[in-house]
Design brief:
- The chain has one domain: Alpha-Beta Barrel (TIM Barrel).
- It is of the alpha/beta class.
- The protein is globular, with a radius of gyration of 16 Å.
- The protein has six helices and ten strands.
- Mean pLDDT is 92; it is low at 10-14.
- The strands form two sheets. It has an eight-stranded parallel beta barrel.
- Helices cover 25% and strands 21% of the residues.
- The two termini are 28 Å apart.
- It binds the ligand O=C(O)c1ccccc1N[C@@H]1O[C@H](COP(=O)(O)O)[C@@H](O)[C@H]1O.
- The ligand O=C(O)c1ccccc1N[C@@H]1O[C@H](COP(=O)(O)O)[C@@H](O)[C@H]1O binds at residues 22-23, 42, 44, 46, 49, 51, 74, 76, 98, 142, 144, 150-154, 174-177, 197, 199-201.
- This is N-(5'-phosphoribosyl)anthranilate isomerase.
- It holds the Pfam family PRAI.
- GO terms for molecular function: phosphoribosylanthranilate isomerase activity.
- Residues 20-218 form the N-(5'phosphoribosyl) anthranilate isomerase (PRAI) domain.
- It catalyses: N-(5-phospho-beta-D-ribosyl)anthranilate = 1-(2-carboxyphenylamino)-1-deoxy-D-ribulose 5-phosphate.
Length: 224
């Protein structure tokens, strides 16, 4: 799917929470999750992650994905060139920058037509002023829990802190989200919350998603 078509799709679905399943790797498992029609599917291009795609996914296998699902590459402190080349190779439509990437890199990548999600590690001391420099440089923020690793820690942060967010960029909620959290998510009164990202809490083993559990989550969250 091209970037323009993709942003059109996202606009059409902007009233519902966008659902992203991250950390995919095995081709059969990818097909199982695609059958559930996620809005975004994430692939980790961070070599130190247990979910690193490595060579397990032939670049070709990501080329023929349904137009309704946006392919996201997750990167940690990579260069512009590496991200661009990887995006080209795997035909990614979006990039999630999950390290200490600067606003300039977000802007540069956005200008290429890629959708840009910039992740921030949140704890009770998170300084929302940090985000001011990123306004307008990315399409979404992604608020994840500050933990030992860059991502995939499986731990939630205190969502109440998001009431302090004064910015204009819409965001995804991430970090340890599990099936049991659906009701709490639905009660959140955060107008700029546009998407939910699930990952390690839906796994049978690293990068292998439990499709029945993902289906249960999607079913509950998509219920009016
Ligand atoms: O999942 C990983 O291994 C990972 C590694 C490096 C950067 C990001 C990573 N995953 C992202 O982490 C968040 C939260 O995941 P979890 O629910 O806490 O397991 C999610 O956005 C993933 O995209």
């Amino acid at each position: 799917m091209g970037a323009a078509a993709n942003s059109e799709n996202i606009k059409l679905r902007q009233n519902a929470l966008l659902l992203k399943v991250c950390g995919m790797r095995q081709p059969e498992n990818i097909q199982e999750i695609l059958a559930l029609k996620p809005d975004y599917l994430g692939f980790i291009f961070y070599p130190k992650s247990t979910r690193f795609v490595g060579d397990e996914i032939p670049a070709d296998s990501l080329k023929n994905m349904p137009a309704t699902t946006c392919k996201v590459g997750v990167f940690v402190n990579e260069t512009y060139e590496t991200i661009r080349q990887t995006a080209e190779k795997y035909k990614l439509e979006a990039v999630q920058l999950h390290g200490e990437e600067l606003p300039e890199l977000c802007q540069q990548l956005k200008e290429t037509g890629l959708l840009v999600l910039k992740a921030f590690s949140v704890d009770d001391a998170f300084a929302f002023e940090t985000l001011e420099a990123y306004e307008g440089t990315c399409d979404y923020y992604l608020f994840d829990t500050k933990g030992n690793d860059y991502g995939g820690n499986g731990v939630r942060f205190n969502w109440d802190i998001l009431k302090n967010y004064q910015g204009e960029t819409p965001f995804f909620l991430s970090g340890g989200i599990d099936l049991a959290h659906v009701d709490q998510i639905k009660r959140l009164e955060l107008p700029l919350l546009k998407g939910i990202d699930i990952n390690s809490r839906f796994e049978l083993s690293p990068a292998l998603k439990d499709s029945a559990k993902v289906q249960a989550f999607f079913g509950k969250i998509r219920q009016a």
